[in-house]
Amino acid sequence: MLGEVRLVGPNGPARLEKKAFGLLAYLAVEGATPKSRLAGLFWSDSPEATARANLRQLLRRLKVATGDVLVSGADPLALAASVDADVSALRGARRTELAARATELPLGRLLGQLAFDDAPLFDEWLHSARANVDAARRLAITAAIDAHERSGRLADALALAARAVELEPRSEDAHRQRMRLLYAAGDRGEALVVFQRLRAMLERELGIEPSRATTELAREIARSVEQRGPRSAPSASAIPLSVLRPPELVGREEAWARMEAAWAAGQAIVIGGPPGIGKSRLMHDFLNAVAKPFFFSGRPGDRAVPYGTHARVYSEMLAKIDAAKLAPWARAELARLVPALGQAPGPMESEADKIRMLQAEIEAHRLAAREGYDAFGVDDIQFVDAATAEAGQYVMAQLFQDPTVKLRAVLCYRAGELPEAIMASIREGVAFGLGIHIELDPLPPAGVRQLLGSLDVPGIADMADSIASYAGGNPLFVLETVKHVIASGALSRADVARMPPGRIGVILEGTLLRLSEPALQMARVLALLGSNFTLASASAALEASAAATAACWAELTAAHVVHGMGFSHDLIGETVLATLPRPVEVLLRRRLAVALEALGADPALVAEQWRGAGEPCMVGRKLMDAATSSRAVFLPREAAVFYERAAEAFREGGDVVAANEVFKMRDRLLQRAGAADRQPSR
Predict the structure, then answer these.
(1) Maximum Cα–Cα distance for the chain, whole Å?
(2) pLDDT per residue over 83-113, tens digit each?
(3) Which residues constitute the signal peptide according to the record (predicted)?
């Protein structure tokens, strides 16, 4: 069906009329179809009885011409099991199957050059089907390219990228992909030649310039400086433990006193402030002094996945308590979030199913309370996904009303980054006396001097005024400046005074520049993945051995870039992203998308990587999967949002037909959800 359309049987090629080929193509692409639909497609201008009679005659002539039954079934009709069509390989195939078939698929259009002016409805279908088949074929080639990249076969990947350009010579996406691969292979000159050829072709044939995305990619490649060999790993500077975690919490006496009063009154505590101001340190020190707490945190990337933060919170919580003491029904429900607990129930189909899961979470908190835990602190709540926030509010409201559970909470957030709905809820709680809200300010010069004096670093206290001027009273900035002074050996007041005020990014960039190339690449993967980073995903994306992965992580730890399984501070991750060249980002995101999918990651996370790689149709497909996942945990409105985003991605990628179909799916889902909301409660 692709290219020069033909039918080959045991006795060689068979000659068929145009509509017979059209019928076979439709069934190959769409599958089983009612007779009424087929008759209307080919004879829309005829009465229904005439159209059905024409279809019967077409089927008879098809059987006579081939001597075989190619179309089976009474109604609906489908291709017989003995018929194999190349285009059928693109329908419903898994990504791995598509990759295997990429080099086998012909380059021609669906039904070649055949035209169907006498069947306008079929002609309309054929126009959209050709676009869909081309998109599926692009996916097949993309899957094969990804497979070659992951296996280190860049030459094979480049050969397929050239094939993609041959398939769609006017496609800037195909040209950009080839440019990126050439750049990754070290052939910067040929990548720029591809761009020059594309620009000349677009000017000659269409009278236009390449898009901004293509032009910026070429500019980035032209600006890049080829590495003349891997950078050697730096030796770790001896940073005193007092600098990594100052022994004293200075300048927060007033905030501490307010927290003690709120604690005695049974109030919740919310702490806000800019990055690095000391919110986390204040929360941890306070809760460790007055309670037996759990500590959780939102992380960059959580918002992309419904219940993303939730799953991590309960995984960490259940690891610290004796989950075997939970009732079997509660363990089963919590297995939805923590698969290690065993077999989870089937998909949620009602609000009652969701409430049952939340009740299981309440049971886990009650068990924790019996084991002595009486508080929890949540850092960076601005990153928490909406489904987790809603579920958390329900669970906490139930627990705070339970006289058998003593539970207190401290929440921290970055100023200016919290959704307005949550800020409004905080203001309402404060107004009703349920909690207090503390905004942390920078340390005054006296506080900076006190902090530096507690570090036990020779000569650093003499630089207090210069460091205070540079860091602006932000404790994190002060400590990063001290690390820079120690690492660079610039132990003089004049050296610090020459640094531009407020430019902590310069220091963080310097830290990154001292990393070896493999460690820097791992830091980039961590920044792109956020809360979903694992050493397995990094190893797969970077095609690194377990030993090499461990060595890179050890280097990042020694350089104080990472702590635990994340960055030592969010600002380091933001600096990594800010200094990441676009061509490298695209290559890493493509590899991460493939690696995450192979590891069974949430489809919404895979979609985010494809979005960063500039592949909107891949984004749309994965967001469709994310919508299905959301419906499985009874989050219809989240699913509707995924459908809407998928439709917009398809539209961005030029697949208007798919976009319209997905918009219809969203509308039907919202209608059903609205109808359910209007049902009387029992």
Answers:
(1) 100
(2) 888 777 665 544 444 445 555 566 677 888 8
(3) none
CB 162 within 8 A of CB 103: no
Per-residue pLDDT, 270 = 95
Classify residue 322 by burial, with Cβ atoms within 10 Å: 0-12, 13-18, 19+.
exposed
Burial level of 673, CB count in 10 A (0-12/13-18/19+)? middle
- 476/462 Cα distance (integer angstroms): 19
Each residue of 294-312: b (16+ CB within 10 Å) or e?
Answer: bbbbbbbbbbbbbbbbbbb
235 — pLDDT class (breaks 50, 70, 90): very low
Distance CA 184, CA 182 (A): 5
Digit-coded pLDDT (tens) for 489-543: 654 444 554 454 445 566 677 678 778 888 899 999 998 987 677 777 888 888 7
Distance, in Å, from the CA atom of 145 to the CA atom of 173, rounded to the nearest integer, reads 14
Cβ neighbours of 76 (radius 10 Å): 14
Percent of the chain with pLDDT over 70: 86
492 neighbors 295 (Cβ within 8 angstroms): no
- Ramachandran angles phi, psi of 567, nearest 5°: -70, 150
CB neighbours of residue 48 within 10 Å: 11
Cα-Cα-Cα-Cα dihedral sign, residues 94, 98, 100, 105 = positive
Q: Which amino acid is at 457?
A: V
Average predicted confidence (pLDDT) for the chain: 80
Pure H helices in 498-635: 504-513, 517-529, 535-542, 546-558, 570-578, 582-598, 603-612, 616-632
Distance CA 413, CA 475 (A): 16
Q: Is the dihedral of CA 81, 87, 93, 99 positive or negative?
A: positive
**DSSP element (H, E) containing 272:** strand 268-273
Q: Which of 606, 612, 553 has its CA nearest to residue 583?
A: 612
Give the integer Cα–Cα distance in Å for 534 and 269. 32
Indicate if the pLDDT at residue 465 is higher than 80.
Answer: no
What average pLDDT does range 189-205 have in this prediction?
86
Per-residue confidence at 674, pLDDT binned at 50, 70, 90? Answer: low
Q: What is the distance between the terminal CA atoms of the chain, rounded to a whole angstrom?
A: 56
Give the pair of three-digit tokens for residue 77.
Answer: 């009709």
- Alpha-carbon torsion angle 165, 167, 169, 170, nearest 10: -110
3-state SS string for 423-459: HHHHHHHHHCCCEEEEECCCCCHHHHHHHHHCCCCCC
The number of beta carbons lying within 10 Å of the beta carbon of residue 221 is 21
- Which of the 8 DSSP states describes residue 102? T
State pTM to two decimals.
0.50
How many whole angstroms separate alpha carbon 144 and alpha carbon 136?
Answer: 12
Whether the link from the prior residue into 419 is cis, omega within 30° of 0, is no
